[in-house]
Structure formats: structure tokens, C-alpha cells
Design brief:
- The chain is built from 4 helices and 8 strands.
- The protein is an alpha/beta fold.
- The longest helix is centred in the middle third of the chain and has 19 residues.
- 30% of the residues are buried.
């Protein structure tokens, strides 16, 4: 059993348990993106402690739609926007705290624009700044040396959480200098390693 990378971990576990209760032997391979799971958890916790939530990202993005759904299910008014222009001042009236989160593939420049506009509207409406963020995300820069935690190891690649919007991927060829064909002989899940950023983000947000 595998799952879409943006699927909430709770859904995945419920299906595994349901199959096991029927006496079925399940080979469960958790293919959910670690960074996505952490982001969903942070967004859920934030939504439970603010008056309104703003989720920024593409309306057709599965990742962003999942975030919006998770936040709205807490009962907190949640607004999904693609740009700062969509924000409306009435959303912020009477709100003491405002939360912000974004999909993994949302460009940093869009997030910053929305954040800036939210603060402006919040201050105009309520007279003071009261915005909270799900997490501070810093985009890695090409050539930067970063530390990361290994979250998944396969025959073809190693996935590393470097504290960005999504995980970094180290292809097997990058480990060829160790003289082994299997990345599992070099690193294991939980290892902290240093990586050089070759490319900050690809078209899939990795």
C-alpha cells in the first residue's frame, strides 16, 4: 500500500488498520512527503489557536487544498487565496489572531506579498498587528551548504528534510564517490548530513 505524497498520515493509517482488521497482510510503504506531513500538522495546530486562517497557494494544488481542508475542519474560518489581491479586509474584522500557511510549491515571493498585505489589512481593521504564521520557511539558495535529516532512503535516492517547504532529494549518482550502489550502505533514516544545494526547487516543488 502506497499513498499520494500529500495525503494526511491519519487517512493512510486508518486504511492500513482497516485492511489489517480484515485479516489481510499489508505491505505498507509510507510514501507521504515528510515535509508535507509536518506542514499539515503545524497548520492544524495553528488553526486551532487563531481566529481566522489564510492558506496561500494554487487553487488546483492538491497540497494546498489539503491544507485548507485541514484548517477549515477545525471550525476556524479559513480562506484559500492564490495572491494578495484576493484578501478582503472584512475577513480580519474582530480577529485577535490571524494564521498563515502555504502549500509546498507556493513561491516565496507570493507568500511574502500575502503576508505583507495581511499585516496591512489586520492593522487597518484592528489597529494592531496580530498575525501568526504556521512556520517560518526559508528557501535554500543554490550553492548553499545546509544541514538536513535523512527521512527516506531508497535504491535510487535519499530524501532529506532541510527545513524548507519540501524535502531535498539526493540522487544515487551523487553518492557514487562512496563506491557503493546502494544508498542504504551510506546513510540511514535519522542521520544528520550536510548537503550542497544544486538547485533550489524543481517544477514539482522538490
Amino acid at each position: 500500500m502506497v499513498a499520494q505524497t500529500t495525503q494526511p498520515i491519519a487517512n493512510y493509517q486508518e486504511v492500513v488498520e482497516a485492511l489489517q482488521k480484515q485479516g489481510i497482510e499489508v505491505d505498507a510503504r509510507n510514501t507521504i512527503c515528510h515535509a508535507t506531513g509536518e506542514r499539515q500538522k503545524a497548520a492544524l495546530e495553528l488553526a486551532q489557536n487563531v481566529d481566522i486562517m489564510v492558506v496561500v497557494g494554487g487553487k488546483n494544488s492538491a497540497n494546498t487544498k489539503k491544507l485548507a481542508k485541514i484548517c477549515s475542519e477545525t471550525g476556524t474560518p479559513t480562506f484559500h487565496v492564490e495572491s494578495a489581491e484576493e484578501l478582503q479586509d472584512e475577513w480580519f474584522r474582530g480577529a485577535d489572531t490571524v494564521g498563515l500557511t502555504a502549500g509546498a510549491s507556493t513561491p516565496d515571493v507570493i507568500i511574502e506579498e500575502v503576508k505583507r498585505r495581511m499585516k496591512e489589512l489586520d492593522e487597518m481593521t484592528n489597529g494592531e498587528e496580530s498575525m501568526s504564521e504556521a512556520m517560518e520557511v526559508k528557501a535554500p539558495q543554490t550553492g548553499e551548504l545546509v544541514k538536513g535529516i535523512v527521512v527516506q532512503v531508497s535504491m535510487d535516492e535519499v530524501m532529506v528534510d532541510v527545513g524548507a517547504k519540501s524535502e531535498g532529494v539526493i540522487p544515487r549518482k551523487e553518492l557514487a564517490c562512496y563506491g557503493v550502489d546502494n544508498p542504504q550502505e551510506v546513510v540511514k533514516v535519522g542521520d544528520e548530513i550536510e548537503c550542497v544545494v544544486i538547485k533550489a526547487e524543481d517544477k514539482e516543488g522538490i
